[in-house]
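Re: your question from the hallway

Yes, I did run it. Sequences:
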Amino acid sequence: MSKTAVIIDGKAVAEKIQGQLRSQVEELAQKASRPPGLAVLMVGDNPASAAYVRNKERSCGKVGIASYGRHFPEQTSQEELMQAIADLNEDDRVDGILVQLPLPKHLDAVAAINHIHPDKDVDGLHPVNLGRLMRGEPGLCSCTPAGVMALLREYGIDPRGKQATIVGRSILVGKPIALMLLAADATVTMAHSRSPDLGAITRNADILVVAVGRPELITADMVKPGAIVIDVGINRVTDYEGKSRLTGDVNYDSAKDVAGFITPVPGGVGPMTVTLLLQNTVESYIRRLGLE
Ligand SMILES: Nc1nc(=O)c2c([nH]1)NC[C@@H]1CN(c3ccc(C(=O)N[C@@H](CCC(=O)O)C(=O)O)cc3)C=[N+]21
Ligand SMILES: [Mg+2]
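Structure:
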């Protein structure tokens, strides 16, 4: 006999938080001289990136954040990109700057991110913000990991005392989420694509966060009964009928009969990433204009 997991509805939580952000922005607008502003820099014509950027701009509009995005041609030089970032650092209307990743191969993404003023780094990827996270100091937090923490909070899941296992060690997700779960008093284990006998490790997890970018790597037999499964993967795969679809790093159909809670893909972590970007932008706006 199997019981189906509670499905963590990231889309609903994202809409709820975006609604709260909209009211907050409306209220702040009465004492502020301008709306919050976000600049998304995109280089080249990667269709997936273009879709994400459109999605971010649409969400900004809904919440009342002004978009100052710039779209550069594929052959843009590092100097042009660095100059654009420098200009946005100086632009008082802009509270947040994000460089859409991945960049074309000839460009240095690390140099670009390091060039963003840490107080406008709404992606939380600047070394100063990652350092603040490591030291437990306030600062802008990476959107996807912060989105995961917000989902846990919304579902009344307290990491304290729980065994949390993260599969994946990226600077975008794996490493920052490990630090956030540690700060929330979980016992944290880091595993990754090269960990031998991954199942033996993941089966101990009360909270299992998977962010390795391998479609459906985690199967039901690797999940502890009743575990909270957070699937950060977004993989575009082609099914046997030749149709393209999105799938996570977890085999959802089997894992949902073992887990206690599970995030679907799409509709789980993805919408929260965008929401936390908006929240970080509003937070930066409040701090920059002294609106507290
Ligand atoms: N500097 C930077 N910061 C990022 O945060 C960043 C980035 N670059 N580059 C690309 C990745 C990817 N990413 C997603 C955001 C939202 C969804 C999202 O909303 N997904 C929906 C559906 C999307 C669909 O249908 O294609 C969902 O999962 O339900 C997904 C992926 C942010 N990224
Ligand atoms: Mg790996």
